[in-house]
Amino acid sequence: MAKERSYSSLIARLKAGGLRPTRQRLALARLLFEGGDRHLTAEQLHSEAEESAVRVSVATVYNTLHQFTKVGLLREVVVEPGRSYFDTNVDDHHHFYFEATGDLQDIPSDRLRVRELPEPPEGTRIERVDVVVRVRNLET
Amino acid sequence: MAKERSYSSLIARLKAGGLRPTRQRLALARLLFEGGDRHLTAEQLHSEAEESAVRVSVATVYNTLHQFTKVGLLREVVVEPGRSYFDTNVDDHHHFYFEATGDLQDIPSDRLRVRELPEPPEGTRIERVDVVVRVRNLET
DNA sequence: ATAATAGTTTGGAATTGTTCTAAACTATTG
DNA sequence: CAATAGTTTAGAACAATTCCAAACTATTAT
Ligand SMILES: [Mn+2]
Ligand SMILES: [Mn+2]
Ligand SMILES: [Zn+2]
Ligand SMILES: [Zn+2]
User: Fold this and answer.
1) Average pLDDT in the A93-110 region?
2) A2-86 architecture in CATH?
3) Strands across the sheet containing B103-108
4) How confident is the model at residue A4 (pLDDT cuts 50, 70, 90)?
5) Does B129 contact A131 at a Cβ distance shorter than 8 Å?
6) Is the CB of A80 under 7 A from strand C?
7) What confidence category does residue B35 fall into, taking pLDDT thresholds of 50, 70 and 90?
8) Please, are residues A76 and A87 in contact by the beta-carbon 8 Å criterion?
9) pTM (2 decimals)?
10) Nearest CA to B26 among B38, B13, B10, B15?
């Protein structure tokens, strides 16, 4: 029942974004949104799909991640060159980045404030402020 | 004269980092450090070298950028997936990122403060805090 | 239902930025 | 002037991502 619920809410969210609720998009949406806040690479999501016996191509995983990002269901996080993470938490927040493992952890925006943000240069507006707190294992 | 000066100071800086002052490293160091604060990709630096008739391979540009970063002459900045910027300003500071052009502009750390930085997770220490203020052209 | 249309998916090729490799070269030291 | 260790290089290899054109599917119109 909860499953049906979230299913139709997912369909509604896709439609709201002008995206047809296809088999692939629904399957990926469930993997993404039915497990709380997540930070995934395209490759990780594709692996999860395979493990769940969802047949979907790599190209579609990329297409879907970008489409979801465009309609505000996801947010892209850049912390290291060479790969993008997609974040199911689209609220304003920041991140711890664990260099050792490549994991991301949310920092709610009320736990970290950026003060004295300077004026953006002439003719531009601020799109977003990203704070990445890079942490390393304490060497013993 | 100023040229000789900076030349020998560059040599000294390389030696301090345990790097031999080779023709290629000196040429790249001059391009990097004789023009104020800069934010360059490997490819941009390689193009500048070619334009200045400095013959140096792509592999050496990458090697050099990473070696300079390791010894503290440069700092790596990640703002978009797929390519790294190298920053000649190694002081503590943050960045405006112009999505339209891919340019970076420094924000001195006294112009932007991060407050209420949360405790790092158990067993880790904060390595660095990166703030990227993404700006876009004001649509008219 | 059916057909027409527009949107979607797909495998594989292509592209991009970066790293690797092993052979040739060069700075430093004795 | 060796001998040595460090450096450079072209090109191959690699990883992540994007592109492509053909096959497929959801939606809309009849
Ligand atoms: Mn992207
Ligand atoms: Mn690097
Ligand atoms: Zn997050
Ligand atoms: Zn900078």
Assistant:
1) 94
2) Orthogonal Bundle (1.10)
3) A103-108, A93-98, A124-137, B124-137, B93-98, B103-108
4) low
5) yes
6) no
7) confident
8) yes
9) 0.91
10) B10
